[in-house]
Amino acid sequence: MSQTLKIPNHIAIVMDGNGRWARAKNRPRFMGHKKGVDAVRDIVKECGRLNVKSLSLFAFSSENWKRPEEEIKHLMGLFMLALDREAKAMARNNVRLKIVGDLSAFSEKLQDKIKYVEKLTENSTGLNLIVAANYGGRWDITQAAQKLAKLIESGDKTSVSITEDDITKQLTTTEFPDPDLFIRTGGEKRISNFMIWQMAYAELHFTDELWPDFNAESLNVAIQDYSSRQRRFGKTSEQVIAEEEKNND
Ligand code: IPE
Ligand code: IPE
Ligand code: MG
């Protein structure tokens, strides 16, 4: 068996623990989110260095609207600020930004900013940075079902002909391959409605580290963990080893 490190094509991260990070330092929760943006910058850089093709970050879930209004306001402000500050650096560093989620809930100003940064970085050929904002996995599948239903209504499709691939094609992440590695910081062991369809076969890595403390080294630990897994996709271990040996010939 090969000992070389396998780099995942697509990493998806639930960046959790900002609030607890701040609370542990007797600071307001907002400071944790602010520090969390610095961690994003470091991880994007490291993914670029490692030649990871796509990185998906869960920034705001469809369930996060239940938080205190003050915190939501801070988060929106921070999102706007980060887009403003990082747009040019992303373009310069060949990063392509794509925001997924129900953006209609955001202010006009924020929606315009999102469109602007997506346009500015659309020709980048390096890392795809997918930021999930007002995103929920169930929302994504629901909007895909609505689009398929429309195709049926217009006579372009029949209900019996619907395949898994048809559903995948209507998801907001359809242009990117499924995540290979899922990371959640902050100690909780749950998916919290992230890309549930897309992560059907992702390798899961959980760490107690709080998101503001997560750094390049932590990412490399997660990748090493991923690299040590045998991905079988339903096959037997022997089949996978035989295939790997054949590919190494
Ligand atoms: C994750 O950190 C960031 C968002 C959900 C926006 P949290 O804010 O959930 O931090 P904890 O879980 O309360 O520590
Ligand atoms: C998940 O974190 C969403 C984001 C990181 C944006 P939460 O902290 O909201 O998750 P739960 O509600 O504790 O599962
Ligand atoms: Mg949390």
Q: What brief labels describe this structure?
A:
Undecaprenyl pyrophosphate synthetase; 6-stranded parallel beta sheet; alpha/beta; single chain; 8 helices; 249 residues; binds magnesium ion; binds 3-methylbut-3-enyl trihydrogen diphosphate
What report would you give on this structure?
The chain is α/β, with parallel strands linked by helices. The protein has a single domain, classed as Decaprenyl diphosphate synthase-like (Undecaprenyl pyrophosphate synthetase, 3-Layer(aba) Sandwich). It has 8 helices and 6 strands; from the N terminus they run βααβαβαβααββαα. The radius of gyration is 19 Å and the shape is globular. The chain starts with 9 loop residues before the first strand and ends with a helix. The model has no long low-confidence stretch (mean pLDDT 97). Bound molecules: 3-methylbut-3-enyl trihydrogen diphosphate (2 copies) and magnesium ion. The site of one 3-methylbut-3-enyl trihydrogen diphosphate has 12 residues, from strand 2. The site of one 3-methylbut-3-enyl trihydrogen diphosphate has 10 residues, from helix 1.
